[in-house]
C-alpha cells in the first residue's frame, strides 16, 4: 500500500514565541534512532488528556513533504521565509507508551534536552494525534479526577491529624509544588500513596529525576533531605490504607534515592504497618540491587517490587544506571529471590523507540522473561534526551534493526499471554487478574 493512500497527520511546528501551528502540505514525522516515519491516522491515536506540548530549542523540525514524498529538515517557515520554526513534541499522560519520537535535527551547539519523553505529535481531523498506545486503562493519574481544591482540603486535614509528621509536610511540597500525582492521590485518598524515604543511591542513572550531578540538565524534583522515622512512614501508610479501597503504598519515588539503602527505617515501618492493618499492598519501586536486604523486607511484609531497568542486557544497563557496588546480576538475583518468595515482580521497563524495539534487545527481553519470574511489565517512557540516549546505547549495541514498539508488545504478549502489561503498580487484589 503506497504512502499516498494513507491519510497523513499534518506536521506541527512552533515559532520563536512557542506558538504551535500546523503546516499544510507537510506530514508530521516520527523517528526511532536513524529511522524516519511519516505519521498517519491509522498509526496514531488522539492525544490523551493531561499531556503537554514541548517546544524543542536548538533543533530543526523534520517533516514529510507529501508532494515530493520525501523528508525535509525545515530551517525556516516555508510559508514565511526568514521566520524560524522549531520542533514540537508530546509529553503524554501516564498510561500511554510512545511508539515514535518527534523527528528533529539538532543544531551543532544544541544543549541536552531536560528529563521528559518527546513523543511524535501532529494534527488531524481537528485534533492532536500522537504516535503511542495505551498500556494501562486505569485512571490513577488522570489529572481531571484530581481537583486542586480537594487536594488542598486534604493537605489542611492532614496538618490537623499529623501536625508533627515531617513526611506528610514533604508530600505537601510534592503535591502542590512538584505536581506529583502519587502525592496528590495521597491527599485525595485514591489508589497509591508515596513513601519517599532514602537520601542516597548506589546508582547514578543518566536520567535520575532527583539528582543530576555534573550535568547540564536540571533534576525535576529535589531529593528528600531527611530520613523519616518508622513511625512517620507507618502513620502515612496506615492512614492511606484505612481509607482507600485496594490501597497501594510505595517506597521508591522520584524525589528520593534508592529505598533499599534506607532499609533500617523501612523494615520496622513495614512491621508497624502490618501490625496495624492486614489489608493494602506494600510495594517498593527499586533498582533491586541488594537481594539480601530485599529478603529482610519480604520477611517483614513487603508484598511486591517494581524493578527499574532500561535494558536486560548487562552492558546497556550499566551504561544507563552506572551502578556503584552492585551489578546487573545482583538485580537478577533480587528478582529470582522475589519469585521464590511468591512475591509479585514488575519491571519498570524504561523504553525508548529506536533502542527498546531493536531486534537484539527484543530477543534478550524474551529470553529474560523466559528465565525469570516477572509477572508484569510497566512500559514506561524513558524521560531522557532521545538522541543522546541513542548515542550512549549505540556504543554498547550496534544493532539498529527495529521492529517497532507496537510489534514488540504484540511479540511479548504472544510469547507470555499471562504476563500483565501496565503502567501502574497493581494492588494485590489484581496480582492474578
Ligand atoms: S536508581 Fe533512582 S535514585 Fe538512583 S540514580 Fe537511578 S533514578 Fe536516581
Would you kindly provide a written description of the structure presented here, covering whatever features stand out?
The protein has 433 residues and is of the alpha/beta class. It has 2 domains: 3-134, no CATH class; 143-430, Aldolase class I (TIM Barrel). It has 11 helices and 22 strands. The radius of gyration is 22 Å and the shape is globular. The chain starts with 9 loop residues before the first strand and ends in an 11-residue tail after the last strand. The model has no long low-confidence stretch (mean pLDDT 96). Residues 201, 203-205, 208, 210-211, 257-258, 287 line the site of iron/sulfur cluster (SF4).
- For the record, what CATH class of the largest domain applies? Alpha Beta
User: So how many helices?
Assistant: 11
Strand composition percent = 15-25%
CATH topology of the largest domain: TIM Barrel
Kindly state the mean pLDDT as a whole number?
96
> How many domains make up the 3D coordinates?
2
- Estimated radius of gyration: 22 Å
Structural class: alpha/beta
What's the architecture of the largest domain in CATH terms? Alpha-Beta Barrel
The hetero molecules present are: iron/sulfur cluster
Q: Approximately how much helix is present in the residues?
A: 25-40%
Number of strands: 22
Cα shape: globular
Distance between the termini: 39 Å
The largest pleated sheet is described as: 7 strands, antiparallel
> What oligomerization state is this entry in?
single chain
- Poorly predicted regions are none
| CATH 4th-level superfamily of the largest domain | Aldolase class I
Amino acid at each position: 500500500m503506497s504512502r499516498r493512500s494513507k491519510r497523513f497527520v499534518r506536521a506541527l511546528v512552533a515559532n520563536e514565541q512557542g506558538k504551535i501551528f500546523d503546516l499544510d502540505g507537510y506530514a508530521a514525522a516520527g523517528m526511532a534512532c536513524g529511522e524516519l516515519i511519516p505519521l498517519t491516522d491509522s498509526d496514531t491515536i488522539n492525544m490523551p488528556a493531561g499531556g503537554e506540548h514541548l517546544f524543542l530549542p536548538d533543533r530543526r523540525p523534520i517533516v514529510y513533504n507529501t508532494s515530493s514524498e520525501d523528508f525535509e529538515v525545515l530551517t525556516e517557515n516555508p510559508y514565511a521565509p526568514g521566520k524560524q520554526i522549531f520542533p514540537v513534541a508530546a509529553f503524554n499522560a501516564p498510561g500511554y507508551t510512545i511508539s515514535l519520537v518527534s523527528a528533529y535535527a539538532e543544531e551543532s551547539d544544541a544543549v541536552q534536552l531536560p528529563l521528559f519523553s518527546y513523543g511524535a505529535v501532529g494534527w488531524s481531523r481537528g485534533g492532536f494525534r500522537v504516535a503511542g498506545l495505551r498500556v494501562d486503562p486505569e485512571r490513577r493519574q488522570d489529572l481531571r479526577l484530581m481537583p486542586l481544591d480537594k487536594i488542598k482540603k486534604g493537605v489542611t486535614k492532614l496538618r490537623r491529624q499529623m501536625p508533627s509528621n515531617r513526611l506528610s509536610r514533604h508530600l505537601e511540597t510534592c503535591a502542590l509544588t512538584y505536581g506529583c500525582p502519587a502525592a496528590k492521590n495521597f491527599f485525595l485518598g485514591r489508589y497509591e500513596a508515596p513513601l519517599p524515604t532514602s537520601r542516597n543511591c548506589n546508582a547514578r542513572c543518566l536520567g535520575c529525576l532527583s539528582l543530576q550531578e555534573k550535568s547540564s540538565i536540571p533534576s525535576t524534583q529535589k531529593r528528600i533531605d531527611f530520613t523519616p522515622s518508622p513511625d512517620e512512614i507507618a502513620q502515612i501508610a496506615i492512614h492511606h490504607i484505612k481509607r482507600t479501597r485496594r490501597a497501594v503504598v510505595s517506597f521508591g519515588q522520584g524525589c528520593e534515592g534508592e529505598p533499599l539503602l534506607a532499609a533500617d527505617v523501612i523494615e520496622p515501618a513495614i512491621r508497624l504497618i502490618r501490625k496495624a492493618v492486614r489489608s493494602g499492598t506494600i510495594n517498593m519501586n527499586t533498582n533491586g540491587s541488594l537481594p539480601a536486604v530485599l529478603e529482610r523486607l519480604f520477611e517483614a511484609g513487603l508484598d511486591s517490587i517494581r524493578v527499574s531497568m532500561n535494558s536486560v542486557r548487562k552492558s546497556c544497563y550499566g551504561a544507563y544506571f552506572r551502578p556503584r557496588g552492585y551489578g546487573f546480576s545482583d538485580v537478577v538475583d533480587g528478582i529470582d529471590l522475589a519469585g521464590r518468595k511468591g512475591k509479585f515482580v514488575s519491571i519498570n521497563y524504561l523504553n525508548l523507540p529506536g533502542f527498546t524495539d531493536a531486534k537484539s534487545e527484543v530477543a534478550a527481553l524474551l529470553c529474560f522473561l523466559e528465565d525469570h519470574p516477572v509477572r508484569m511489565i510497566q512500559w514506561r517512557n524513558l524521560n531522557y534526551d532521545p538522541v543522546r540516549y541513542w548515542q550512549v546505547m549505540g556504543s554498547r549495541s550496534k544493532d539498529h534493526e527495529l521492529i517497532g514498539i507496537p510489534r514488540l508488545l504484540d511479540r511479548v504478549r504472544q510469547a507470555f499471554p499471562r504476563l500483565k502489561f501496565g503502567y501502574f503498580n497493581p494492588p494485590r487484589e489484581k496480582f492474578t487478574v
